[in-house]
From TrEMBL:
Main EC class the enzyme belongs to: transferase
GO molecular function, one term: glycosyltransferase activity
Keywords, ordered alphabetically: Glycosyltransferase, Transferase
Organism domain of life: Bacteria
Residues in AB hydrolase-1 domain copies: 29-257
The protein's Enzyme Commission number: 2.4.1.-
Keyword Glycosyltransferase included in the entry's annotation: yes
Annotated coiled-coil segments of the chain: none
Pfam families, per the entry: Abhydrolase_1
InterPro entries: AB_hydrolase_1, AB_hydrolase_fold, Carboxylesterase_BioH
Record flagged with keyword Transferase: yes
Name of the featured protein: (R)-3-hydroxydecanoyl-ACP:CoA transacylase
């Protein structure tokens, strides 16, 4: 089924390309949050998995994909800005669930820390609260290549690190996509890496501990960049965490092979269809940007 496509105005500042995949039998809606340098196209497999049970919302951030043509580039967008955009889209589409991938999880968790009233549960995939040695090496090399807009090395870096378990066809697509981005997108990614590094060094977890809904963290058994073991550290701060490890999978989980796709599907459905929404406590709202700067 083809999606309903719309460009959503966010606070009169950003124009966001969105895709709404309706399912005739669905009673709930899930919004998906891209990883860095990704677009709605990267969720093609995930949409096929989710759509029979849920309405699915995809979107491109203002600087990326099909949103880029609708926005100017007079300033860089922070992860805090992304969180606020996500909060607006949650309201616009009346989303009940959220699922994020990789560094899209930074904005997703910042948004969830503001306790959006509609979101009942969230799935956080291929993410951990730790920048371990392999991830720091990947990020530091990425900073060098992004600053120079070195397209060839950016594409090769992604495929030789976090993307090393992808099938060859997906690697070719990944390389073509990552090595052909607009220079403004490389500047955005450079700024995001710097911000993520600052967040980790300043310990963002006390703020994220405000999240009060059930969360499922999904990581690949062979992912050395966001490991399943490191993801379990979220359990020390967040009140209701579940964890799933996808066997014989790396960073890209359901894109890597059929078994990983089936395991990921079972983990998501088992979580979203079995957990009751929590009764929220009421706390004063805190501005995302202020909180991110304060920790």
């Amino acid at each position: 089924m083809k999606p309903a496509i719309a460009v959503v105005d966010v606070n009169g500042i950003y124009k966001v390309h969105t895709e709404f995949y309706a399912s005739p039998l669905a009673r709930k809606t899930i919004i998906l949050v891209n990883g860095s340098m990704a677009t709605t196209a990267s969720f093609a497999q995930t949409v096929k998995t989710l759509q029979p049970q849920f309405n699915v919302v995809l979107f491109d951030l203002p600087y990326a994909g099909r949103s880029r043509q609708h926005n100017d580039y007079d300033h860089l967008i922070s992860k805090d800005d992304e969180a606020n955009i996500l909060l607006e889209l949650i309201e616009h589409f009346k989303a009940n669930f959220l699922m994020s991938f990789s560094w899209g999880s930074v904005a997703a968790l910042l948004a969830l820390a503001k306790r959006p009233a509609r979101i009942e549960q969230a799935v956080i995939s291929s993410f951990s609260p730790v920048l371990n040695e392999p991830m720091l090496d990947y990020m530091n090399r990425g900073l060098t290549f992004l600053e120079a807009a070195d397209r060839e090395n950016i594409g090769e870096l992604v495929n030789s690190t976090i993307g090393k378990f992808l099938p060859s066809l997906f690697k070719r697509y990944n390389y073509r996509h990552v090595s052909s981005l607009h220079e403004h997108e490389y500047r955005q990614m450079h700024a995001h890496i710097k911000q993520v590094m600052r967040m980790e060094s300043n310990c963002q977890m006390p703020y994220l501990a405000r999240i009060d809904i059930p969360l499922l963290f999904i990581n690949g058994e062979n992912d050395e960049y966001t490991t399943a073991q490191d993801a379990r550290l979220f359990g020390e701060y967040l009140p209701d965490c579940r964890f799933a490890t996808i066997e014989n999978a790396g960073h890209f989980l359901d894109m890597e092979h059929k078994s990983a796709c089936e395991q990921t599907r079972d983990a998501i459905f088992g979580f979203l269809q079995s957990t009751r929404p929590v009764e929220r406590l009421h706390y004063p709202q805190m501005d995302v940007q202020h909180a991110a700067m304060a920790v």
